Amino acid sequence: MATLTVHWQHQPFSHDAGVRSRSDIAGTDADSVHTGILTDEHQEIGDGLPLLVEDATRRVYRPVDLPPGTQVVATATTEPSQPLLDRAKQAGFDVVAAAR
Prior knowledge:
single chain
């Protein structure tokens, strides 16, 4: 089973874009950083395409489930993990290696 520890981030967005006053929107921004694993084997999929599994909730994400502009950062990339990263990019994830 190919897995890689990652975190992903996106610009914070409001759950209630219709509310405009500062007091009403306080605390409605979604958390913009999540941690988990990138894997190509999971009980929820049978097609072998990579997906993200969040640490905190065990929720599974495909590229279409993420907000636009979400970037997946691979924390420790090695030669054996390169095929998984390539498949993740082909599947639609915006994957980058963490700065060393």
